[in-house]
Design brief:
Layout (H helix, E strand, L loop, with lengths): L12 E8 L6 E8 L12 H47 L1
Antiparallel strand pairs: 1-2
The structure holds zinc ion.
The site of zinc ion has 8 residues, from loops.
C-alpha cells in the first residue's frame, strides 16, 4: 500500500502505529501523518483502511482545489456581467 504525498504541502506521508490500552486488551491503531506539516488521518485499527483514507483525502483535496478555483472564477464573470448590465441600465434611463 503506497501513500500519496501530503495534499497540503506535498510532503512525505508515513505510517504511525499506536498501542491503545494495556496488556491483552491493547489495540494497535494506525495513523498516517505528514512529515512536513503534521497533517494526519484519524486513527484506525485497519492499516489498509487508514492508507485508503489518506489517499482519498488527497483526491478530495485536489477536487476541492478545483471547486475553489471554479468558485473563484465564476463570481467574477457574474459580477462583471451584473455591473455591465447595471451600467447599461443606468445609461438607458439617463
Ligand atoms: Zn503536509
Amino acid at each position: 500500500m503506497t501513500l500519496k504525498p501530503c495534499p497540503c504541502c506535498r510532503g512525505q506521508a508515513i505510517f504511525a502505529d499506536l498501542l491503545i490500552g494495556k496488556g491483552s486488551q491493547s489495540v494497535k491503531m494506525w495513523q498516517v501523518s505528514c512529515t512536513g506539516c503534521g497533517l494526519s488521518t484519524e486513527m484506525d485499527e485497519d492499516k489498509r483502511y487508514t492508507a485508503t483514507r489518506w489517499n482519498l483525502r488527497q483526491e478530495y483535496a485536489s477536487l476541492k482545489m478545483w471547486i475553489t478555483l471554479l468558485a473563484a472564477l465564476l463570481p467574477v464573470s457574474v459580477i462583471i456581467s451584473l455591473l455591465l448590465g447595471n451600467l447599461m441600465g443606468i445609461s438607458l434611463i439617463s
